Every structure is written in C-alpha cells, then in structure tokens.
Amino acid sequence: MEFVPIANAAINGAVVGLLLALPALAVTLVFGIARFPNAATGDYMTFGAYTAVAAQAALSAPLIVSAAAASLATALLALFFYGWVFRALASRSPVASLIVSIGIAFVVRSSITFFAGQSQYNIDAPLVRAWNFNGIRVLPTDLYIAGAALTALAAVFAMLHFTALGRRMRAVADNPELARASGISARRVMITLFTIVGLFCGLGGFLLGMKAVVIPELGWELLLPIFASVILGGIGSPLGAVCGMILFGISQEVASLYVGSSYKIVLAFLVILCVLLVRPQGMFGTIRAVR
Amino acid sequence: MEFYLVAISISILIYMLMASGLALQYGFTGLINFGYVGFFAIGAYTSALLSLKGVPLPLCLIAATVLPALAAYPLGKVTLRLGGDYLAIITLGFSESVRMVLQKEEWLTRGVHGIPGLPRLFTDWAGTGSGDLTLLALLLAVNVGVFAMMRYLIHSPFGRIIASIRDNEVAVRALGKDPTSFKTRSLMLGSALAGLAGAFQAHYVTFISPEQFVPLITFYVWIAIILGGAGRISGIIVGTVILLTFLEGSRFMRDFVGGVSEVQLASVRFWIIGMALILTVLYRPQGLFADKTTGAR
After folding, report:
1. To the nearest whole angstrom, how far is the Cα of B39 from the nearest Cα of chain A?
2. Beta bridge pairs of residue A136
3. ipTM value of the model?
4. What global pTM score does this model have?
C-alpha cells in the first residue's frame, strides 16, 4: 500500500489515541490507586458526550461551554458513584468493585437510552477544510482535539509530580498501608482521583463526540481498546497509559486499512493476549502477580 | 398455558446449566469471567453448524461441550498466572471478539442474518405438540447430573483446593500447589457447561444470530448467581428462577404500563440488571437468602 494513506491513517490514529489517552489515564489511575479495573469508564465517556449534545441542543451553548458542561457533569457522576458505592467497597476485595463497576456502566447507559433512545446524535462543530500537504490531510479540528487532550494530560502530570496532593496520590498508589501510616487521608486522595476520572472521561467523551457520531454504545465499545492500551503501557503507569494508547490508536487505524474497521475489538483482544504472554508488566509497569 | 409452562421451564433449565458453569468458576474458584456468553456462543454455533452438515445431534452436543473448553484453555494459560482482574478483561475481550467474528465471517455464520431452521433435538413422536416434553426431561436430567458432579467435585481434593484458591491463593501456593493449573481446569469445565447450554438453546429456539450473544447475557448469568449466593448449589437454582421470573415478568410489564416504547422497556430491563448488580454486591454480598457466613466475598 502507498505511503499517503498510511500516513493519513497514522495521523488520525494519533489524534484518536491522544484523545482516548484521557480515559486510559483515568483507568490506570483508578487501577493504581483504588485497585480495580473500572469498567464504567467507557459509559462515563458516553455520558459526557450526551451531556455535550444536550447542552448544545437545549442552551445552544458554544463548544467550549459544552465541553465544560460535559466534564463537570461527568465529574459529579463519578463522585456520586464513588461516594455511594466505591467508598463502601474500599475495604472489600477488588472483585466487588469490579462487578459493581459493570453495574454502574449498565445503569448509566440504560438511563441514557431511556431518555435519548437509540438514535444517533452529533456534536455540532464548525466545518473547516483540511490542510493538504501533497495528499496528507490534516484537519484543524483534529489539532484542536489533540491540543485539548494534551493540555489536560499535561495538567494532570504536573499535578501528580509537582504538588503535595499529587505526591500523596502517588504514595497511596505505591503502598496504601505505608501511606495511611504516614497520615495521608485516603478520602481526599480518592475524591481527587474520582474528580479527575470524571473530568477526563467527560472531556474525552466530548472530544470523541466531535470526531464520531454519538450513540449509546460509544464508550462501551472503546472499553477494550482502552484496557488493551493500559495493559500495553503497564497497568498503573500513567505515562504507560498515554504512550500505550497513542501506539494503539496508530496501529488500530493503520491495521484497519488492511483488515476492515470492524475488527478493532479483535485487535484489542489480540494485543492484550500478546502483551500478557510476552511481557505482562507492559512497557512501563511493574508486575502484579497476585492481587 | 401448559405449553407456556413447558417453554419457561426449558428456559430456566438452560439458564441453570449456564449458571452452574459460572458458579463453578466464580462461586467455587473465584474466577471472574466477564465473557461467559462467548463460550455459550461457541457451543451454540458449533452444534448448529455441525447439525446442518448432517452430523448426528448427540455428536454435535459433545462437540459443543468440548470446543468451548478448548477455547478456554489458552485464555486460562495466559491470564491465570496473573491477578484475577486480567481474566475479567481478557474474557470480556474474548466474547466480544467471538461476536465480531460471528458477525463478519458470513461465509461460515451468515453474519447478522443468523442461521434459521436448526433441527430440534426431539421430533414430534406422540403427535401431541412437539418434542419439548422430552427435551424438558433431558434438561432436567442433565442439570441433576451437573449438580451431582459439582457436589462430588466440591468435596473432592480438587474442590477443596479450588475453594482455598478462592479464599487465599497465597496460602495454596505456599503449600506447594500450583493454583494456575487448578484454575485453568475450573475455567475449562465451566466453559464446557456454557457450551452445552448454548447447544441446547440453539436446537430449542432453532435460530441463532450474533445478537443473541451480547455481553448482557453474561451479566444475566452473573446476576443469577450473585442473587442466589455464589458458592452454593441452592443459590444457582434460586438465582436462576428469580432471573427468569424477572425476564418473563418484564415482558408482560408493557401490557400494564402504557406509553412505554420498546426501547424504553429494554432500557428499564437493562437498568434493573445494572442496579441489581450494584445493590446485591453492596448490601447482600452473600446472596439474597443466605446467612452471613457462607460465600461472602
């Protein structure tokens, strides 16, 4: 195959990967700090996308306001489920939180379909022409999406590494007992964690809604690619999640030139299988043999 | 009415067979299989495709039991030496991949159109209705057999080891047993039961299509064993009956509540399953009717 279509697919994949790095970071942070794979992540994104659609339809809000509404509403949703469910389950086996996160995913998605039905929606963005460099096309919208995702990622990395709160979060991720013994309040860490999860999933859902049609299965179908990337990057490693997701996004788009786009989930599955077989700790993670 | 009772009993028994397999995996071994429907699908399609090629039905059922177990083997081999969460993710990926393949490989499965006209297990030999009563009797026998096998397993050395893996894997390792091999066997056995249930379903409904194998089915089975109390055989029976009562009941709900569309009804059903998962794990982890001492995790 020629170079130009591959380059275009790679650029598109990089944008998708950067955008999905937001929920991937949310998954890996929850895994590292709260210690369970949060299967509700995808449906939190869907919730964000529908909030943005609703904000545009009801208030004819400009894009930036819809983005803020999506992030804030999803943050509230994530905090609500933390306060009601995950906080109570913190002392139990991670299995309990994992099963419950599936329940939350179902509740969120079915609430959406109850009110919005199964029809497709769009987030209205101004139409712009792609820049064309000898056949390699770059959409300005894609640059905005990538820019927004990068800014959000940079903010969280700065918070994790340069603030006291971030240091506490990393301490809890590293060794929860030691962190508690040193007087770190788990509740504040958890509240921060789930605020970030909600903000990121909401923003991710909004950005995704600008690139794709908004349907009830929007986020759920991305759950496996996200998990695959998190495992690829090394579960619990923030940097790994971002790198893994971008790598996965590019390979997914390039691969779909050859095998058709419907095999994305199969690809995700194969990636997980291969990584676990060859290098279960991923690119940047440490091995977790028994929970 | 009689016809309806037979139909619902058959559905209950097919779900009960599935619930037994998952109970073996989760309730007795502690394995989190979020892709259980994938093994059910493999069983259904294996038996369906073989039967249309003219293979005798008993052989089809055997193939439908063996193949899912073989499919489970590599998954177990790769993931079960790692933490339990990996199995959850990989099985979910597995079942969704199976569904995608069933949808896309039309040369084999006719894709989304599904495969109609599957042979029934028992033909109408008495001239009264169909062979459903015979099927009911067979399913009853199979379920009783499976319960007997599980009872035997639980009290065998194998059963004691999988139970201790569930409760404290590190201790099992310290005793010099390799948990991975036991977990893999439990995964394969449970998947075999799912496959057998799939074959029964295919030949009972006589039509299969990929959309019968969505992840929701996996969680129907999950909610059945969690409601009944995972880790007890009586829990399997109780949970399945509750689940089927709910599924059947919600079909009639539309006749009583006006102004609800089909999509909304499906949403409500979906919502209730999700909410039931949350509430049971949160407030009744040992199951609805169990005492606090058994099966709590």
Report:
1. 16
2. A133
3. 0.89
4. 0.90
